[in-house]
Amino acid sequence: MASLNKVLLQTPATFLIARRFRGKINIQKPKKPHFEKQLLIDITQPTYGPPKSSLPQYAFCNNDKPTFTKKEIDNPFERILARECLEWFNTSKMVVFLHLNSINMEDKTPIFAALKKNDMHLRTYGKKIMSMATTGTRYEVVNQLFTSHQNVIFGQPQNANKMFKILKKAPQLVVMAGIIEDRMMSKNELVEFSNLPNLEVARSQLCSVLQSAGSCLVSQLNQNQQMLVSHLEKHIEILSAPEKNKEDS
User: Fold this and answer.
1) How many CA atoms lie within 13 A of 138 on its CB side?
2) What is the pTM of this model?
């Protein structure tokens, strides 16, 4: 047996032996932890302030809280977009601001294509880019219309009627206001402007009005002369009537 133990490897005896705890654990009155665990519990114990119901009313005022100013980062791409936006304002005689409701690209793409076909351009700009583009210019008042990303239509005034016909197909795009020939207009004024005839028709109407006024003035000036001539002719006829009767007799 001794020789067998020398040939075979012997397993070392363990110092710790796991045994099942046969007693019941008291959940309501647990055993106190040891010192290190109790120290960790005390350190990580959260601290709460007094309840809000016990605080006075002035404690809820936020004026005493320090305000932190957010540092703005200079973005070159935003400056490029702002320069492009200002160029659209300077080259377009009609600028219409739209409020965009929920719409998918399948419904918006045909509207974009129809406006492009009629020489109108639909652009989307944010409040920051619009502020960078219009601050210090004559268009600075339009910043009040921007709260977030808004759609803007750039074009020419003669296409206003076509624009309203195209926007009828997309009720999600709501017209708020516009600029026509450097004049700010509301939606009702834009609708009234779109119903006006074009420049050639307006010129022809003006010419007809001026021509009718001139002809009316000429007829009024010649009316007294014509009446005088007609009265003289009748007077001559009356004077020459007795002489003709004597000759006939």
Assistant:
1) 7
2) 0.55
In the sheet where 184-186 sits, what is the strand order? 121-125, 150-155, 94-100, 173-180, 184-186
Q: Which stretches does DSSP call E strand in the chain?
A: 94-100, 121-125, 150-155, 173-180, 184-186
The answer to whether 97 and 177 have CB atoms below 8 angstroms apart is yes
Both structure tokens of 36: 């290190």
The amino acid at residue 63 is: N
Q: Give, rounded to a whole angstrom, the gap between the first and last alpha carbons of the chain.
A: 195
With CA atoms as reference, report the closest residue to 93 among 189, 183, 187: 183
pLDDT digits (tens, 9 = 90+) for 86-145: 999 999 899 999 988 888 888 888 888 999 998 899 998 888 898 888 888 888 888 888
Give, in order, the Cα–Cα distances in Å from 56 to each of 47, 52, 181.
21, 8, 58
- What residues does 150 pair with on adjacent strands? 125
